[in-house]
Amino acid sequence: MTNIASTGRARAGRARGLSTKAAVHTVLLGYTIIAIFPVILVILNSFKNRRGIFSDPLGLPRGETFSMEGYATVLTQGDFATYFANSIIVTVSALFLILLLGAMAAHALAEYRFRLNTLLGIYLILGIMVPIRLGTVAILELMVDLNLVNTLLALILVYTAQGLPVAVFILTEFMRTLSRDIKDCARVDGLSEYRIFFEVVVPLIRPVLATVAVFSMIPIWNDLWFPLILASGDATKTVTLGVQQFIGQYTVNWSAVLASLSIAILPVLGLYALFSRQLIAGITSGAVKG
Amino acid sequence: MSDLVLKDVRKAYGEARVIHGIDLDIRDGEFVVFVGPSGCGKSTLLRMIAGLETVTGGDVIIGGEKVNDIVPADRGIAMVFQSYALYPHKDVYGNMAFALRHAGEDKAVIDERVKKAAEILGLEALLKRKPKELSGGQRQRVAIGRAIVRDPEIFLFDEPLSNLDAALRVQMRVEILRLHQRLKTTMIYVTHDQVEAMTLADRIVVLRDGRVEQVGTPLELYHHPCNRFVAGFIGSPKMNFLAIDPIDDGRRVRYRQSAPIDLHVKTRSGAVPTEIGIRPEHVRLVEPGKGAFDGTVFVVERLGGETFLHVDFGHEEPFVVKADGGVQLRSGDVVGLVFPAETLHLFDAEGVAFEQTERHALLG
Ligand SMILES: Nc1ncnc2c1ncn2[C@@H]1O[C@H](COP(=O)(O)OP(=O)(O)OP(=O)(O)O)[C@@H](O)[C@H]1O
Ligand SMILES: [Mg+2]
Predict the structure, then answer these.
(1) How many domains would you assign to chain A?
(2) Total-model pTM
(3) Nearest to A188 among B77, B130, B133 (CB)
(4) Domain with CATH 2.40.50.140 in chain B
(5) Residue B161 Cα, gap to closest chain A Cα (Å)
(6) What is the pLDDT along chain B (364 residues), one digit of tens a residue?
(7) Between B78, B83, B133, which is nearest A289 by CB?
(8) B41 lines ligand 1 (CB under 6 A)
(9) Which residue, by CA, sits nearest to atom 29 of ligand 1?
(10) Nearest ligand to the C-alpha of residue B158?
(11) Whose alpha carbon is nearest atom 24 of ligand 1?
(12) Cβ(B43) to ligand 1 under 6 A?
């Protein structure tokens, strides 16, 4: 009697486990579809001609709707190779500066006891709450004074400033959880504070650096605002700005827009793959107890 | 020479004073254990010796040289941390070689020293492993190996065994002892485990609230604790304490209405004994009515080789008696208790111990 009851209960439990699993996966799957759908749509339509895009936006490119005209336009009109190079230079340089300066600031805030530590921390992360675009006019004036308008450096500096607050915030929180012993051990081993940072701390925070990199990368790559204002010259155009030439006031060359957007996804994917390789969990396990 | 001298060493974190002037003299080659309850400042003191905390008052002197302002790496010390603190991205060899490589030591010398340390600690087979592929005991061994490789004048250990399970702790304790016998280097070892302190130390330093309570060999502390705190801290199970009334001008004492108990202590002018302490292993059990007084056994803890009896006779604090493993008593039994006079510790109202007269002869 009890036996039957208990197996019945076990079966019910298993069934419940299975149904929650199914529900969870349904939700996840739904979310994935919603998230990926626009991307797929962009890529699909980039292989169609104008008529194909409008007559059957959801259909696969085939027969008379298939066309590479978008890609042909992108590759012949304008200087997309330069735009790509610009985007990549700006994104990678800004990311590098965000990670380096952010991690160093976070290390100092988490590791050293000094007066105004808390105040400085708050000051550094205040930027999370104040959108940098509010300062556009001042930034533009500053860049004009510094003679940096229409240079990639202007963009790099602005994006570094934009990305630092979140980076400092996340990294400081994480650095506070790092074992103090391991840094002290390095001190006893005779490392300078800089080498402790680069040789002991940085390897320990690599997964978090990768996370911060992914988070900071997308807004920089996609930004249209600052390239438009600070670097709209043809030599300094970024991809997002370059695409705009196909969007006229009266007509939009959709094939070209979609083709350039499809190409623009590739470098982001590449960078993401690079960082996600670093996102190996548990890299710190074994360093300290447990 | 690597004598270590602490002269009125103090530490304050802002307003909070943590170490209140510690004087200590540690001879070359000595194994000294700092012991004390949690938060008493053991780690802080050790870290000050290491140079990881600034000294806010007094001097730390290693080998005759004041080292207050010298960085850890130049103090001739090596430290083993409670959390092992291995570099997770380096393998065992890399961990052990790190400090030497950094110091620009010759490759052949590094290799020789690492191999030697690995041999001492039985790590030869593990040199290519990463820390996460090691067990807790192996990790701790690597941490010790890393210290050995640096060939320091003084080893500093901060609770190195507290993350290990009981069996491994005993094993590592023996290994550390043998390491000391082999290297004959000064070692300073922090623990809050009094068994570790008793078994490892040449001398024990008992700390409380940032002050030294007593310094002495393990047996000195066991037989002649200078106050109630040390008496209660050293020894397991803890010493029993009973409030007593002095009679016959303090030559004898009485617990409530018990028979008078003789004493063998030097009286001090102005100090009246108010409390006796007796270790569980020194209480003798007799037939009810034949001892100083009777009590009821209410808990029997059998460890096999010995038995701990918790006896109730209407006092506030627990009272534990250590008996044979084969003792036939059960909870609820009434027993008589005898306190042999030469084993008694006597304390005044401030907890300061009275010096014993008879015990030297009896127990050394
Ligand atoms: N950075 C700090 N700021 C303020 N107080 C501190 C700081 N570090 C330690 N303390 C205080 O100093 C005292 C001694 O700390 P310490 O770590 O030396 O204790 P401990 O004896 O090692 O204890 P445990 O056995 O728990 O390790 C504690 O009361 C602690 O609160
Ligand atoms: Mg401690």
Answers:
(1) 2
(2) 0.81
(3) B77
(4) 237-363
(5) 11
(6) 578 999 999 999 988 999 999 999 999 999 999 999 999 999 999 999 999 999 999 999 999 999 999 999 999 999 999 888 999 889 999 999 999 998 888 999 999 999 999 998 889 999 999 998 898 889 999 999 999 999 999 999 999 998 888 888 898 899 899 999 999 999 999 998 889 999 999 999 999 999 999 999 999 999 999 999 999 999 889 999 988 887 776 677 777 777 777 777 776 767 788 888 999 999 999 999 888 778 899 999 999 999 999 998 877 777 999 999 888 889 999 999 888 888 889 898 888 888 876 554 444 3
(7) B83
(8) yes
(9) B39
(10) 2
(11) B38
(12) yes
**Cβ neighbour number for residue B238 with a 10 Å cutoff:** 17
Number of the ligand closest to the Cα of B35: 1
Q: Are residues A83 and A140 in the same domain?
A: yes
B11 pocket-lining for ligand 1 (C-beta < 6 Å): no
A235 falls within a domain: yes
Q: Kindly determine whether residue A189 and residue B131, on different chains, have CB atoms separated by under 8 Å.
A: no
Q: Are residues A58 and A10 in the same domain?
A: yes
B146: chain A residues, CB-CB within 8 Å: 185
Q: How far does residue B191's CA lie from ligand 2's centre (Å)?
A: 8
In a domain, A70, yes or no: no
Candidates 3.40.50.150, 3.40.50.300, 3.40.50.1820, 3.30.420.10; correct CATH number of B4-232?
3.40.50.300
Instruction: Please report the atom of ligand 1 found closest to the CA of residue B46.
Output: 18
Do A137 and A263 reside in the same domain of the chain?
Answer: yes
User: Whole domain around residue A178: which residue ranges?
Assistant: 75-289
Q: How far is CA A158 from CA A153, B103, B271, B302, in A?
A: 9, 41, 77, 73
Domain spanning B237-363: which superfamily? Nucleic acid-binding proteins (2.40.50.140)
